[in-house]
Sequence to fold (389 residues):
Amino acid sequence: VSRFTATFPASSSACAVRPLEPPVLGPQDPIAQSTLDAHAPGAGGRPEKRCAPPLDATPSDTGRIAAATPLSPPSLEYCPTHQHLGSAAAAVGGGRRGSATEGTDAGPAEDTDGDPVLQRPKRRRVTLHLPHAMATTIPDVGLQVWSGALLLADFLAHCASESATQRLPRGPSGRLVGLELGGGTGLVSLASVTLGGFDRCYCTDVGDAVLRNCSDGIGLNEVSPEAVPVRELDWISPPPRLARPRAVLTEPAQHNDAEGGRPEESPRPSQWGWTDDDERCFREETTVLLAADTVYLDSATTAFVSCAHTLLTAAGPPRVLYLAMEKRINFSMDELAVVAPAHDHFLATLEQHQGLEAVPIAVDFPQLFASYTRSPQLELWRINAVGSD
Fold:
């Protein structure tokens, strides 16, 4: 079981950190239950001490990732241990051991070694527990946590902060309701509710294994299941009632049997099925769509953009999609050049949907989650239907 930890400053000011890479884990590593932790330090901090892993530590041990903040260059800590790390003050930093003496007019308080005891600002910590895999094959990529999800979580937290330069659109009732496409582990959906000020965010994906893993992860956190409902949504065939005009949506669903053509009851929804309240909430209150790391395979990208277009242009309040993605670059032997085919296909598919407008967002907001590297290839996009602003 790995643990990743995250902390926010008490003040509204926060600085971006540049973490080192966490250990690379092999394809045979088991599914790990993680805690994703973002550290946004306060001013005047002190570099936090590194903690070396024990010799018998494994990737399934309890660990923590933290970002140091201070006047010196930031660093990243990955500290696997067999015991609970305790509070932030006990787990990292804190000066040398010893009881502090009372301060006098001559200067600040000192510990028993004569070192000054710094008064660190209090920081708020938000911990997200997520079961996830360290490595998978392409069909099971939804079981992993990808960098784009952490970038989007940082963006949502920034939009809810006092220093935000933009706010997310709310529905007519004043509530902030979102829907995540390709939610995977549920990190973005959980972050939207716990950090981004969302009242509700639907976490959607396909496949029983991914949906069950996401549901289990939500159960590990202090979040109501009604705040983050897990629903099945296939990009190739999204629920028709989410996309139809309101006049059609209000018609009762009927199905004719094979013999007499008599109407019969609608099929009983599955565990991940959409309820009438879900459909009402989408068409009346949902204003924000979220997606992260959904551009990696051309066929999936085509279906994703088509589904996003359907939901953005569906009946209801104007909606906007925030998409985080990594521009994956490789060398093409055919072209003898560095290319990004998945990224190029995404842009080409967007152009085919002329009703969509896509604008890149500058990634200049504070990095709160320390467990990823903000490379130039990480991008954030704002996509909406033309004329919906």
Summary: The first strand starts at residue 7 and ends at 9. Residues 69 and 302 are 41 Å apart (CA to CA).
